[in-house]
Amino acid sequence: MTLFFIAEGDAGISGPAVGCGDSAISVTSQTVTYTDPVEGALRTLLANHAAHIGQSGLRNALADARLTVDSVDRSGTTTTAHLSGTLSLAGECDIPRVEQQLLLTAQQAAGTPVAITINGKTLTEALSLK
């Protein structure tokens, strides 16, 4: 399964560009069997509370988050992952980092775009500093 972490200051060279001059980098994780691949990928990502991924230099912007996957709904071509819990952001640069770690991991598992809600709010609303 593929999970995404952050290469700070990489400026989109090694993976998709993320705000604040970072890149999202895919990392292959051990395969975990779940009924739904999106649920499995997100649960695996959210279970990792290490701030840095081994010796790779990659950062986990979700390290301090305490989120759980409540459900994954599929309706036609739309997939929505519903999460609940608390996010802990270390500043406004963590907003695009967290967003891309969640979205890219879920989309890689689904093979299609995925919407994410946290505590009933859209991901954008949940990540708003307002």
Q: Between the first and last Cα atoms, what is the distance in angstroms?
A: 34 Å
Order of helices and strands: EEEHEEEEHEEH
How many strand segments?
A: 9
Q: What summary fits the major beta sheet?
A: 4 strands, mixed
Q: Name the average pLDDT.
A: 93
Task: Provide tags for this entry.
three-stranded antiparallel sheet, four-stranded mixed sheet, 9 strands, alpha+beta, 130 residues, single chain
Describe this structure in words.
- With 130 residues, the chain is an alpha+beta fold.
- 25% of the residues lie in helices and 35% in strands.
- It has three helices and nine strands, in the order βββαββββαββα.
- It has helices spanning 37-47, 94-110, 123-127, and strands at residues 2-7, 17-18, 22-28, 52-53, 58-59, 66-75, 78-86, 114-118, 121-122.
- It has a four-stranded mixed β-sheet. A three-stranded antiparallel β-sheet has the order 1-3-2. It has a two-stranded antiparallel sheet with strand order 4-5.
- α1 (37-47) runs antiparallel to α2 (94-110).
Helices and strands, with pairings:
Elements: E1 2-7, E2 17-18, E3 22-28, H1 37-47, E4 52-53, E5 58-59, E6 66-75, E7 78-86, H2 94-110, E8 114-118, E9 121-122, H3 123-127
Parallel strand pairs: 7-8
Antiparallel strand pairs: 1-3, 2-3, 4-5, 6-7, 8-9
Helix pairs in contact: 1-2
